[in-house]
Amino acid sequence: MRLTIVGGGGFRVPLVYRALLDGPDGTQRGVVREVTLYDTDRRRLSVVAGILARLAEDRSAPPRVRVAESLDDALRGADFVFSAVRAGGTAGRVRDERIPLAEGVLGQETVGAGGVLYALRSVPVGVEIAERVAALAPGAWVINFTNPAGMVTQAMADVLEPHGLAHRVIGICDSPVGLVRRAARAAGTDPSAVTYDYVGLNHLGWLRRLEAGGRDLLPGLLADPAALAGFEEGRLFGPEWLSALGSLPNEYLHYYYFRRETLASVRSADETRGEFLDAQQGTFFAEAAAHPERSLELWERTRLRREETYMAESRAATGGWERDSCDLDGGGYDRVALALMRAIASGERTRLILNVRGGATLPALGPDAVVETVCEVDADGARPLPCAPLGEAELGLVLQMKAVERATVEAALTGSRAAALRALALHPLVDSPAVASRILDAAGV
């Protein structure tokens, strides 16, 4: 199998390659024998290729790494296409966050006004990739990690629908798998031995059942303040709210449930997350390019600091606690991608939380709406499993956010100012159409 990574100069690309090297089957099963990298930033691409070469040292038959000169060159002959593009770079993220904050509303890469602004750039790029896949690699499976992952996956699937290829676009995220893993450990069981019910949209979902040995462990966990205090989501949301809610929310729902506290924390910080990453990655890539012999060491050090500071503003709003050491290994999206590729390539069934067209999963959204839910994966791709209906409050939020997503995709693909205004003004974290209009003006939309 050949894997193409579009956005091959991305900082987290070495995680994917390392997962290929360290996975339970690795290259011995032939899941991926060649990795092709493509990126418009040639300096970053050179640095990342060098890190992959160092990761492969002393490994038996590691996947070959090839650097492509163009997107079309990268896509031809691909079996899997991993899309992990940051349109506008980290400098774009800085603007996405600062412009809304100047208007007193949250700016974040995938949530709130910042997420909408980012999607206006990333959706057209995702659509271009999907169109070239349809033309040059119609048999390929597209694994999307380009953010905002739900919106970009939706747009890519819609573009591939006329070609009969919409089912071949699958979005991945590391937040749900991390939630399940942490909740299982807190409930005193092996994360690999649980089944679960999780549904929603990307960065807007809820874990509603956690079963082991035929017993649902979630009610007991939600009723145990000490256990809840032992993992990230328990500390973020607090035992009182989780007990009242009756489920475990995705960590990004902290921006919705505790919007006042989180916004105050973000506004009081010395720098935004985007500013931190912009400075950190600028320093890393400059140092790694100047000292290629140390690139792997520099990457490991930078990656660890990146993970330690993940969602720091939400943690600051709830006491300023540090992340657990077991949550600093890179997030997990690399393992989700490898498990997905392995299941499709081998035909061995597995269950993963993925972003796919929902079918009958959430009937109110329609069958073509991309949702994030538990899927069964085999050689035919990913199929959402039946799940219990969402409660009224959760469904209401999902419906509102899907309307925001659809308006954002329309604006991104047509340039419609009216659609962009609807997307921002309808977002529950933007409190006024007038504010939405000024944000668009400042962003040049």
From TrEMBL:
<keyword id="KW-0326">Glycosidase</keyword>
<dbReference type="Pfam" id="PF11975">
    <property type="entry name" value="Glyco_hydro_4C"/>
</dbReference>
<keyword id="KW-0464">Manganese</keyword>
<keyword id="KW-0378">Hydrolase</keyword>
<dbReference type="Pfam" id="PF02056">
    <property type="entry name" value="Glyco_hydro_4"/>
</dbReference>
<protein>
    <submittedName>
        <fullName>6-phospho-beta-glucosidase</fullName>
    </submittedName>
</protein>
<dbReference type="InterPro" id="IPR001088">
    <property type="entry name" value="Glyco_hydro_4"/>
</dbReference>
<dbReference type="InterPro" id="IPR036291">
    <property type="entry name" value="NAD(P)-bd_dom_sf"/>
</dbReference>
<feature type="domain" description="Glycosyl hydrolase family 4 C-terminal">
    <location>
        <begin position="198"/>
        <end position="430"/>
    </location>
</feature>
<comment type="similarity">
    <text>Belongs to the glycosyl hydrolase 4 family.</text>
</comment>
<dbReference type="InterPro" id="IPR015955">
    <property type="entry name" value="Lactate_DH/Glyco_Ohase_4_C"/>
</dbReference>
<dbReference type="InterPro" id="IPR022616">
    <property type="entry name" value="Glyco_hydro_4_C"/>
</dbReference>
<keyword id="KW-0520">NAD</keyword>
<keyword id="KW-0479">Metal-binding</keyword>
